[in-house]
């Protein structure tokens, strides 16, 4: 009688874990992070039909890496649970923590009871009224759940990606800054010889949970909107040089105006000097001449005074 092959429970769990990790490592990475206006999802996914980022409920989003059929089944189950709870009770009773617990129970049961575990890793995100109320939950293939503050990176090289992200991430950053940071982190791994890659809009799947949007907060960013956000911002140095050029032009204009004013002042002074000389000559003639000539000299004095008054006005 042949002896049955025996494997310890520890060895079985170890083999299943290794199998699941290898399957997840073959998938492209996904980054989820918070920003000032909500929660940002960025996945390296050139497909426009098979989504790795999706909506679960009004203010809850879902992201996954691994085998698509397996995490798509999990996503559909989460949508059904959220719809049933929202219909039975209230839409406000549907929250990210309940969905994360639901997924943890499903993944844990599959990992321990079935011969093949799911090769998936999930993130459940909920946007709150303020950045402090945002929730990010990361779930692994064995049902383990973790509450991640601010940043979640999933995939084969998640540790390398999340290390740089956590150092540079800030919850009050703008959407375009957060998007460029996430894309840079995704492109920092996976190149030939660990060289960084440049990811374009056609290679990315991007979505957000908009904090300021009423009702359904989930929104995808595609085409022109995504391209504009990925565009590099204008360099401040160029703006400073333009401002200095404008200041130089203003200074040149002020110099020209000042020179014109100085010339006008010199002309007025010359006319005043010319008017003073005839006045002195007329006074001498009035001393030697009869009184009638003095009156004529007085008329001559009126002319320069009126001319000076006109120049002053």
Automatic annotation (TrEMBL):
InterPro entries tied to this protein: Ntn_hydrolases_N, Proteasome_alpha, Proteasome_alpha-type, Proteasome_asu_bac, Proteasome_sua/b
Pfam family name, one: Proteasome
Molecular function per GO: threonine-type endopeptidase activity
Composition bias, Basic and acidic residues: 254-270
Comp. bias regions, Gly residues: 242-253
Matches recorded under PANTHER family: PROTEASOME SUBUNIT ALPHA/BETA (PTHR11599)
Protein name: Proteasome subunit alpha
Source organism of the structure: Rugosimonospora africana
């Amino acid at each position: 009688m042949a002896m049955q092959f025996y494997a310890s429970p520890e060895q079985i769990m170890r083999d299943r874990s290794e199998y699941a990790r290898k399957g997840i490592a073959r998938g492209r990475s996904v980054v989820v992070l918070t920003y000032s206006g909500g929660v940002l999802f960025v996945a390296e996914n050139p497909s426009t039909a098979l989504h790795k980022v999706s909506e679960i409920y009004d203010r809850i989003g879902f992201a996954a890496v691994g085998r698509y059929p397996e995490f798509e089944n999990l996503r559909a189950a989460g949508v059904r649970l959220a719809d049933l709870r929202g219909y039975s009770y209230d839409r406000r009773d549907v929250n990210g923590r309940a969905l994360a617990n639901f997924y943890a129970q499903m993944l844990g049961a599959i990992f321990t009871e079935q011969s093949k575990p799911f090769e998936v890793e999930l993130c459940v995100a909920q946007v709150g009224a303020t950045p402090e109320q945002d929730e990010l939950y990361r779930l692994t293939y064995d049902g383990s759940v973790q509450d991640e503050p601010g940043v979640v990176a999933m995939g084969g090289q998640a540790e390398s990606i999340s290390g740089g992200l956590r150092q540079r991430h800030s919850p009050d950053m703008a959407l375009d800054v957060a998007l460029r940071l996430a894309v840079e982190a995704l492109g920092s791994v996976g190149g030939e010889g660990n060289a960084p890659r440049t990811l374009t809009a056609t290679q990315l799947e991007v979505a957000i949970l908009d904090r300021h949007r009423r009702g359904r907060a989930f929104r995808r960013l595609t085409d022109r909107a995504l391209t504009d956000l990925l565009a590099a911002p204008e360099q401040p140095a160029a703006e400073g040089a333009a401002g200095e050029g404008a200041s130089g032009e203003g200074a040149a204009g002020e110099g020209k105006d000042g020179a014109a004013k100085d010339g006008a002042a010199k002309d007025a002074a010359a006319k005043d000097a010319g008017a003073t000389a005839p006045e002195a000559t007329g006074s001498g003639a009035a001393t030697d001449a009869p009184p009638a000539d003095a009156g004529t000299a007085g008329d001559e004095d009126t002319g320069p005074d009126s001319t000076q008054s006109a120049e002053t006005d």
